[in-house]
Amino acid sequence: MKKLFFFIIVAFLIIETSHAQMSYSSFELNINSPNETAVYKKYMEGKTYIGASGGISIPIGSDYSKNVNLGIGAGMQGKYFISDHFAFGASFNFYRSSFKDAYLQQIDTMFTYIAFQDSSLKVLSVSGASTLYPFSLNFEYYLSPMQKFKPYFGLGLGFYVINHNVEISINKEKPQFFRDEETLFAGSSLTSNFGFTPYAGFMLDFNELISANFEVKYNQIISKPVCSALTINIGIMFNLAYKY
């Protein structure tokens, strides 16, 4: 009887020891490794985009809007993401606009009067166009850089060149006095001024390589008289960091 009791005690101790050796503690599984987190945080940082666009220019303010019609043009731009939310870049555009009929009529009346100095002269036609060339360095802030749809706000600082070109046709070779007046009031003239442009837009990713880009810019040219234009552009951007 004592032997049976002894064997029962030994068996109980063996079972308890085995159970203790098989027990384990719980642990936490973290699927976001440090490397994956770093890749996520740098999704846009370091990427470079270049592209081309087409658009319109709506003149605003004083003589510029009074004399010039809506313009059509194109441009190029590039941007580099210094972080996920901030980008730095540059853009160059041109917009060609025709003159309004009332402005051309004023020029026609002026040179018809000038032509009276020679009774044989006659003004046949007056035509022309104005071309706006904005060049700016841009700073942009992106609201949702990790999404396909990326709205942003920006500010551009740069300079603007405006080329006015008026052509006057008459019925004979232009005499010297006519050419002198034409130099003052017609022909081709260039003006350049500094300016700034607050704007808003968005990028829409088609894939990792190609994105659409849309912008609305208010271009304020620092000149006298005040000259400004609202430009609307849509284009295509290419990701230079894309790996084929």
Explain this structure.
The chain is α+β, with helices and mostly antiparallel strands. It has one domain (45-239): Porin (Beta Barrel), CATH 2.40.160. The chain has five helices and eight strands, in the order ααβαββαββαβββ. It has helices spanning 2-22, 34-41, 62-67, 101-114, 176-185; strands spanning 48-60, 71-81, 86-98, 123-142, 149-170, 187-205, 210-221, 227-239. The protein has an eight-stranded antiparallel barrel. The chain is elongated and about 75 Å long. The termini are far apart.
In DSSP terms (H or I, runs of 4 or more residues), the helix count works out at 5
Helical fraction equals: 10-25%
CATH architecture: Beta Barrel
Share in β-strands: over 45%
CATH topology: Porin
Following the backbone from N to C, one meets helices and strands in this order, namely HHEHEEHEEHEEE
Distance between the termini: 84 Å
Structural class: alpha+beta
Strand order of the largest sheet: 1-2-3-4-5-6-7-8
**CATH first level:** Mainly Beta
The largest β sheet comes out as:
8 strands, antiparallel, barrel
- The total count of strands amounts to 8
Uncertain stretches of 5 or more adjacent residues: 20-41
How confident is the prediction overall: mean pLDDT?
Answer: 80
Shape estimate: elongated
Give me the Rg, rounded: 36 Å
User: How many structural domains in the coordinates?
Assistant: 1
